[in-house]
Structure formats: C-alpha cells, structure tokens
Fold this protein.
Amino acid sequence: MSDDRASQTECHRCPLRKQSIFRPLDENELNFVSRFKTGELTVDPGSTILLEENKTPHLYTILDGWAFRHKSLVDGRRQILNFAFPGDLLGLQLAILSEMQHTVTALTRTTLCVFQRDKVWSIFKEYPTLAYSMTWMAAREEQMVDGHLLSIGRRNAFERLAYLIIHLYERAKVAGYAGNQTFDAPFTQEHLSDALGITPVHTNRTLKKMQMRKLISWRSERIQILDRSGLEAVAAYEPEGDGQRPLI
Amino acid sequence: MSDDRASQTECHRCPLRKQSIFRPLDENELNFVSRFKTGELTVDPGSTILLEENKTPHLYTILDGWAFRHKSLVDGRRQILNFAFPGDLLGLQLAILSEMQHTVTALTRTTLCVFQRDKVWSIFKEYPTLAYSMTWMAAREEQMVDGHLLSIGRRNAFERLAYLIIHLYERAKVAGYAGNQTFDAPFTQEHLSDALGITPVHTNRTLKKMQMRKLISWRSERIQILDRSGLEAVAAYEPEGDGQRPLI
DNA sequence: CGGTCATTTGAAGGACCTCAAGCTTAGTGG
DNA sequence: CCACTAAGCTTGAGGTCCTTCAAATGACCG
C-alpha cells in the first residue's frame, strides 16, 4: 500500500490498457499519458487499494494482478461485486461522482498504474479518445455487474457457481492468467461464497457436487474446466461482449 | 412503440436532463442539442423501449415516466436490474459497446427524447461537458446496480424489500413522483418480486408483514412510508450519492 | 355479469443456513 | 525434524427461509 516509485517507462501500456492492446496510442495520447501518470504502485495480496470512505486523489489501472470490488452491510455481510483484471480501471466512480461506495482489495500481488483523479476533466477536454475509452470501460463494467445481478437474483447456487467459473475463466484468459481450460484461482472458498451470495459451507458443498459431476477440478490454486458445454448448460450461459473496443 | 413526432421545442430539457436541472446549458450545447436530437417518442405502459437483441440506432433520455431495465435467463426467469426515471439515459451500452445485454420496458406512459447513437462519438469530440455528463450518469447507474447486487446477495427478503422501498422513494422524489413520504407505485407485486429476486408469493407475504408492522402502506397505486427510521433500520440503509453532478 | 389479471392464503417440500466439530495444510519456532 | 498454530476446508445434523403447487378471493373492464 505504499512504494510509490515513479517510473516514466512503458507508460503507454497503462492509461487504458485495453486500448493499447487493440490500437496503439497516437502521439498526442502518449504525450498526455506521460504528463498524466503519477507512478506505479505494487501492493501485496489482501491489501486495500481503494477504501469506501476514503477520498484518495488517485485513479488506478491494473497492470498486473487480480483484485476484487466489494461492498458490505454494517453488520459485516459482504458481497463481492466483481473481480478486476489487468486493464481495468479502479476509482472511476470516485473521480466522476467524487464518492466511492465500494472497496477494492488485491487478491494477488498487484501492480497498479497511478493517475491523478483531478485530471480526469482535462482528459475529457483534451483527449476525447481516452475519455471515450474510459466510458467504454465504465459501460462494460456495468454490463458485467448486470450479469452478476441476474445470476445472484435468479440462479440457484449450483448454476451461479457454473456461471461464475465460466466468467472468471473468460476474464482470466484475456488477462493471460489462463490456458487450456485452466485458470489461476488465487482466492479462497470464502471469496467465492461472497461473490455468489451464499454461505461458505454451502459453497463448499456446491463445489464438491460440481467436482463429483466432473464439470471442474480445483487443485493447487488452479481450476480446470473439464466439461465446458456441461457447465454452460447448467449456467444457461450466454457469452458476454468480446471485450473489443469498437472503432469509432 | 411508434409515434415518432419530432418536435424541436424544449430540447434543452433532455439530452442530459440532470445537467439542465443543476446548470443551464451553454450556447454551444444548446446549439448541439438541437442538431443532435431526432425527436420525441411516447410509449404506452408495458411497451419495450430497447430490446436486448435489437440494434436500434437510437439512444434515449427519459423526459417523463418510469421504466425498468431487466434481463432474463433462457427459461424465462427474469431479474429487474434497476428502475429508470426522468433524466436517465437509456441505451448507452448499445452506443458505446454496440451491444445491449438487457431490455428496457416502460412501466407508465413514458416520453422519451430520441438521439442518434452514432453521434455519440461526436459528443466526445466536440462537447466534452456533455460527454462528461454521460459518463457521470453511467458511473451513477453502476453505483446503483452495485447497491442492488449487495442487497440481493446479502439481505433477506424483508430487508431487501425495505431497501428497495427507500430506494424507490428517493428516486421518485427527485423525479417529482413523490411527496410527503408517499410515492407512485405503477408496478405490480410481480415487478417487485423480479427486482427483489424472490417469488411473487413470498413477495406478497413479505409485503403483508411489512404492512402489519406499520412500516409502510400500499393503497391505490401509492406507497406510503409510515416509519422511515424503522425501514432504514431493517434495511441497514446507507444513503446514496445526492445525485448532484459535481462542478468541474 | 362473465372473464381476465393481480392478489391472497394454505400446505408441503426443498434449498440453503446455522452451529459445531473434525480435518488438512502450510507456516513457525524450538 | 517435530510440535504447535492458524487458516482454510470438510462434514453432519437440525432448522428456517423461501419456493412450489394449488386454489380462492378480489378488482377491473367491456
């Protein structure tokens, strides 16, 4: 949660990394990014990146690592809203609404690209392409949360788990954390249960059932999808957007 | 679902109405809006404004009326993601991601302001203030969905209902559909149950219980909050953002 | 006044929760 | 190398919340 070593190198990877994956930044943008970026930050697993109450002046992009957005009731019941992967923007709500209503916590050792949030307005004024990308990411994030809401509201535990596994696999894949129907699982069953909206005990039983049916296996921090079409069938899975920013 | 009578009058109310509530549009923006707006559209209760599969070339703002965003599984189980009120933007996902993954349906007779979605990019290029407002609205919408996800995932039926009632009251209030702890309820118990993620039968029983405990009353299309602090207590309610766009 | 739709109520079953204990694993220090 | 600990995982038993099915009641409308 510290280690704010600034480095001006490879900045072009970060501001909206999705974009640089699909389209190289132009000169203006590169110039801008180097002005806008404050530095990099690496945090350990379990550390808080953004806290609900706090008003940090920062906005982040994940360069490497997993994190998760979550929100709790006063009595401690916690709901994981979504997981965050490289390229994802953290703290946009804070920058735009000047209020965060959720917390972001690192799941693995995570490297972030740090920006000044008070410069967001100047992005809109001077770099419409970047602004558009930010909005693109916000819209995409909302689309994912919509999907989770449908899942939590209308699927049973077994179906929810199937859906979440597929979702995580797909996201891990684009981040490079997956391969061959297998992906890293740097989380505990408790994290899963907080994402699924069920108890750890029931999550455990549901996982067991899913392994018993040879749909997945989970050994040593890795989850393998054994029967993709079987999983899709129980989840009533419908593929999400392909993650590609449209050409404008 | 038709009646596309164009009218150039009072356009300044619509493009991002929130904004015009808090700050008058400047000359540039007014000029822009009149170029950008296609017309107005009024739809009857129950009609579909935006359909998941469809690629309408339109983007809407609600001028008057209630609508709701929802999403279903293939077998028909439906989840209401959020309700939409005057000032809300509909179809931003379609415009930005070129893909809608939910449907929007009118709850009351609803009047919409219609825009061409392919002009969104020109907003970003030429009217950064409007672009910023659009992003503001997207961020706010996501914040609301986050709140619902916490609710559905971690509150029980009684608590969910309490939360939803307060939420709807607060939103109806800014839209002018509420007054004196009372608000319009242009929906059925089935809508409520789809928003809460529970069955109609259980929704009915939960409503009964809530009326029995003198927390609310529901008569002739109007819901009255009888005990606000009692409701807040059961919901563990925490106020949302004040809906005011920050000055930039 | 019949028909349709929303609401209401009952009874029974099942999904998920709670509580509680035992287990496994990895890390720590003697 | 072996306690010892702590955190996570596993399993059982019982209870509760919510669902399902089914039928009755009420409200509205032509």
